[in-house]
Design goal:
about 475 residues; alpha/beta; Rossmann fold; 2 domains; 16 helices
Length: about 475
């Protein structure tokens, strides 16, 4: 029977209540979906009757859900907001062309997708409508390229980088970044200085036909800049929409993260078993450090393997690296193979249910991912080797000190980063594996940390294997081989 302490019970209840409140607030916005061939777009209607449409495009490995806060702000300010998932991202089941370095490859595919949405809006709502474009990160380049010859009213590029900008194109361009994105801020300012060589940040410049501005939002980075009220206000003013100030309550991401944190805390204190798991005897830090480093060195040799099943790119490489890492740990350290009989199946099922509940909430409020056939194939490719990895690492952590446990946890992602540098052609488009791994263990690893001593490292590791695999399969973009 599952029991809750009073504090964790309260945290779980308040967290769920916060997410219900956010969902209720979302329902106050009127919207509908349109299908364009294989594409599905969502249109959030303006608070006022409007012939202005603002298409909002997410960045690499993002999804339309990440842009919903900005879409709500835009609709409140007097424009219809259009959000969608790029090919290979989120709920879009199509595969990206595996040619990201050539403009005629992946970039052109995404440009064509956006142009198709622009043409659809003009056909359905009339050529007299005004269309604005917003693109974050990767999409900043996509919206600029797609605007050529499309009669676009204005463009806002968030965290921008593009080789398409010139002194006279685009004609109306806002470039806004996070304060901590110094390189991108310099890039934005350079584009503004094409209009006025003496241009500075946060000042609008115009030479009659060209209007441009480079700005930044304080205390924000590459992702948080999307949610900043200042970013929304800058764009709304640039698009000449109705002045709109977002209230603290309407900043959904604050309450979503708070709600998810409280739910994670509550789940971490769930009691899944009446019997306390006997903690393993700790080994010397020197030996565990050698095992961790040696296993990473062995796993790096996975970069020499070349196997891509199901016509999808990169997931077999991820599986090979983590699987080889896990096998190396099990072989090099006998103690990680002990006590396998302590696997608690019923506690495993309960933890799977708890993790599934949290996964559904994260996907609903932060992502917009659905399990297409390609993502299912990715899951099947990775499930066994990543589960071996997670079981091995959890067992290694169980016999280490707290300080060394942090080292053991981060070493695999350091090794993967080395693979990114050595084999960029094989791993480059899968670089999002790094932040996915970090985010996963910040959330689910926090829960597992408290459950490991209650239900055992094998049980916790097996659960982590399933859900870390799902995280990789659901959030990494889908490329063709």
């Amino acid at each position: 029977m599952i029991k809750l302490h009073s504090l964790s019970n309260l945290a779980l209840f308040v967290g769920i209540l916060l997410l219900f409140a956010i969902q209720f607030d979302k329902y106050t916005y009127q919207g509908y979906h349109e299908n364009i061939g294989k594409e599905n777009i969502e249109i959030i209607e303006s608070e006022l009757s409007s012939k202005v449409f603002t298409i909002i495009c997410h960045g690499y490995a993002g999804s339309k859900e990440m842009m919903r806060q900005l879409a709500f702000d835009i609709s409140n300010a007097g424009s219809n907001a259009v959000i969608f998932d790029f090919i290979g991202h989120g709920s879009n089941a199509q595969k990206l062309i595996n040619n990201p370095t050539e403009l005629s490859g992946t970039t052109q595919q995404l440009v064509n997708q956006l142009i198709g949405i622009i043409n659809f809006l003009k056909t359905k709502y009339g050529s007299e409508i005004k269309i604005n474009l917003i693109g974050h990160s990767m999409a900043s380049d996509i919206v600029i390229r797609a605007s050529e010859n499309q009669n676009i009213t204005s463009i806002a590029a968030i965290s921008p980088y593009s080789t398409k900008v010139t002194s006279n194109f685009p004609q109306d361009l806002l470039l806004t970044s996070g304060q901590f994105e110094r390189h991108l801020r310099k890039h934005s300012l350079k584009f503004t200085q094409l209009v006025d060589p003496d241009a500075d940040e946060n000042i609008e410049y115009s030479n009659g036909t060209i209007r441009r501005k480079a700005s930044y939002s304080k205390n924000t980075g590459h992702v948080s800049v999307i949610y900043s009220p200042y970013t929304s206000r800058e764009i709304i003013e640039w698009f000449d929409l109705t002045n709109y100030e977002r209230s603290i309550w309407a900043t959904h991401i604050i309450w979503i993260l708070l709600g998810l944190t409280m739910i994670s805390y509550g789940l971490s204190r769930l009691q899944f078993s009446k019997t306390k798991y006997a903690e393993k005897q700790r080994l010397s830090s020197l030996r565990l450090t050698i095992v961790s480093i040696a296993s990473i060195a062995i796993a790096i040799f996975s970069g020499l393997l070349d196997y891509q099943p199901f016509s999808i790119f990169g997931f077999a490489s991820i599986a090979a690296y983590f699987g080889l890492n896990g096998l190396a740990v099990l072989i090099l350290c006998k103690e990680t193979r002990d006590n396998s009989e302590n696997f608690d199946f019923y506690s495993f099922l309960k933890l799977v249910v708890a993790f599934s509940f949290l996964t559904i909430l994260i996907n609903h409020f932060i992502g917009s991912y659905s399990i297409s056939s390609h993502r299912l194939y990715a899951f099947l490719i990775m499930i066994f080797p990543i589960t071996i990895f997670c079981v091995a690492i959890e067992n290694l952590i169980a016999i280490s000190s707290t300080a060394l446990a942090v080292f053991i946890r981060i070493m695999p992602i350091i090794g993967f980063s080395i693979l990114l540098a050595i084999f960029p052609d094989k791993y480059g488009v899968m670089f999002t594996t790094v932040p996915i791994y970090i985010f996963y263990f910040l959330v689910f690893g926090y829960i597992g940390k408290f459950q490991r001593n209650k239900i055992g490292s094998y049980t916790t590791g097996a659960t982590n294997g399933i859900f870390l695999t799902f995280a990789f399969a659901a959030t990494n973009p889908i490329f063709s081989v």
